[in-house]
Design goal:
Elements (H helix, E strand, L loop, with lengths): L1 H23 L1 H17 L3 E2 L2 E5 L4 E10 L8 E12 L1 H5 L2 E10 L2 E6 L6 H13 L15 E4 L2 E11 L7 E12 L1 E2 L7 E10 L7 E9 L9 E9 L6 H7 L1 E9 L2 E4 L2 E15 L1 H6 L8 E11 L2 E4 L1 H23 L4 H26 L1
Parallel strand pairs: 5-7, 6-8
Antiparallel strand pairs: 1-3, 2-3, 3-4, 4-5, 4-6, 7-10, 8-9, 9-11, 11-12, 12-13, 13-14, 13-15, 14-16, 15-16, 16-17, 17-18
Helix pairs in contact: 7-8
Length: about 375
């Protein structure tokens, strides 16, 4: 009995010692083994200034995290973080899965970039993850990066999301959003009918009244990151649109306030939905303003923007939808306006034809620019 107790005690002490050694040397283990695997998986450089893993608590901490952008993008990094800490379920690791239960992120930034050719960096990473998942098994004696089975459970994080668009306007569009994100139950290994949920609340950085967002949604098991099934609902509201001057000139309309309702769905990566945009006190810009100088627009205009295409290449015709809505309102008010300034019926018809031609010209020009 005493001998058994001694053996058990020795075994516990040995395991405890191993855990201590692994925890103390986890930084070098991560640098030597995990970083090269992550870089191979993503197809870009992944770097850390320092890292540690506490096997007793399951807490992984990293400082100076950077994930580089793929070739073809001017910006050097996709992700940067001064410090990131995540808690991992140790039991899940034994089962070959990664279950994240909490996160603390310090100055964590995700840079979503569309280059001059219209390619989006985030799509590169989604494609890499999917291609690695569908690779044939590695040959004996070789290793290959694999997309790990993961699940994000009850995670809350604050993330800076920076959107940079080199193809949207002649000047680069560059906006940063501060978002509070909550994720629960999103995984890539559960049954297809199982859904996880997410909530996003945010606003333009340094201006809480611009693009104030409250969005909720649910996501089916991510068996293919490029073909997700999800539902999104929520609202984006902005009352100081001066901060979005480039965006206003792109769609040809300024508004003191606008609201976007976001009922959008994706089924296996195919998008379907209609964004509803409400403009308050709208004012045409540029060429459109010159042509419609004698036409009074209503105080509120609503435009429906179809969302189609695929997640990796969405088709969202903002300009066309807004132009169509303005055209409908302008033609509805033009005859009354022209009569008030004592223009004859023939001139009214010419003016209406002129407005229609103006909208067609602007619409076709924008469509060519977006191709």
């Amino acid at each position: 009995m005493k001998r058994t107790t001694k053996i058990t005690g020795s075994l516990v002490l040995t395991v405890f010692s191993l855990l201590v050694i692994i925890s103390l040397s986890s930084g070098s283990i991560i640098t030597k083994y995990l970083l090269p695997s992550a870089a191979e998986l993503l197809g870009v450089q992944v770097a850390l200034k320092s890292s540690s893993l506490n096997l007793f608590s399951g807490l992984f901490s990293a400082k100076g995290l950077t994930v580089s952008n793929p070739e073809g993008f001017k910006e050097p990094h996709f992700i940067t973080a001064d410090k990131a800490s995540v808690r991992v379920s140790l039991l899940s690791l034994i089962r070959g899965r990664i279950v994240l239960s909490s996160a603390s992120l310090d100055n964590f930034t995700v840079n979503v970039v569309r280059n001059e050719n219209g390619s989006i960096n985030a799509n590169h990473f989604a494609a890499r993850l999917q291609s690695e998942k569908t690779k044939a098994p590695a040959q004996p004696g070789t290793t290959a990066a694999r997309t790990p089975a993961f699940k994000v459970s009850n995670m809350n994080a604050t993330i800076r999301l920076r959107y940079i668009d080199h193809a949207f306007t002649t000047n680069t569009l560059d906006y940063s959003f501060l978002t509070s994100v909550k994720i629960d139950g999103i995984s890539n290994f559960e049954a297809p009918e199982d859904y996880g949920t997410f909530t996003i609340n945010g606003h333009l950085e340094n201006n809480p009244q611009v693009l104030s967002s409250s969005i909720t949604g649910r996501v089916a098991t991510l068996s293919n990151p490029l073909e997700p099934t999800f539902e999104v609902n929520g609202q984006i509201k902005s009352i100081h649109v001066d901060a979005l001057d480039d965006l206003a000139h792109k769609i040809g309309l300024y508004s003191k306030e606008f609201i976007i309702d976001t009922p959008v769905k994706s089924t296996n990566g195919r998008l379907r939905g209609d964004l509803k945009i409400t403009f308050k006190e709208p004012m045409p810009l540029g060429t459109l303003a010159k042509k419609l100088k004698n036409t009074q627009l209503p105080p509120v205009i609503t435009a429906t923007v179809p969302v189609r295409g695929k997640v990796e290449s969405p088709r969202i015709d903002w300009a066309g939808a807004v132009m169509q809505s303005l055209l409908d309102n302008a033609l509805g008010n033009l005859e009354h306006t022209l009569k008030n300034i004592k223009i004859g019926p023939d001139d009214i018809e010419k003016q209406i034809d002129g407005v229609v031609d103006t909208f067609k010209g602007i619409f076709n020009k924008k469509k060519k620019q977006e191709k």
